Amino acid sequence: MPGVLLLLAMAQMSAAPLISELPDVRSITPANAAGVLQYCAKRDLVSTAVSESVVGPLSGKKEVTSSADYSAGQAGQILTGGKTFALGQSNTFLQSQACDRVLRQAQQLQAKGVKP
Q1: Any domain includes 14
Q2: How far is it, in rounded angstroms, from Cα 98 to Cα 24?
Q3: Which has the closest alpha carbon to 109: 63, 82, 101?
Q4: Rounded CA gap, 30 and 91, in Å?
Q5: Using CB atoms within 10 A as the burial measure, which of 9, 12, 30, 110 is most buried?
Q6: What pTM does this model have?
Q7: Nearest alpha carbon to residue 52 among 64, 61, 40, 63
Q8: CA separation (Å) from 70 to 15, 96, 105, 108?
Q9: Whole domain around residue 106: which residue ranges?
Q10: What is the pLDDT of residues 8-23, one digit of tens each?
């Protein structure tokens, strides 16, 4: 039995932390952020009220809502630095954490006055 416990402990120590799998959203486009937040709100991964207060200004232009980045976001794909993070292929914890990161980044974009 002690051998099994040792193997379990070693496996846990060698496993990459789940958080390290999350994307770096600093390079997310406003259009992708707006789409992702809609995806997250529909799945109760972020507050709908908070999400709508950020999504509205980000998605207020037709060129945003008709963009590929926006569509990808609505499909649960976070596009950053040439990489795609698929929310639907992650566990609920990672989905929630990723949505929170996108929300915080979108709020920062909004505070800086970044236009879509």
Answers
A1: no
A2: 9
A3: 101
A4: 25
A5: 30
A6: 0.81
A7: 40
A8: 33, 19, 15, 18
A9: 23-111
A10: 444 444 444 477 889 9
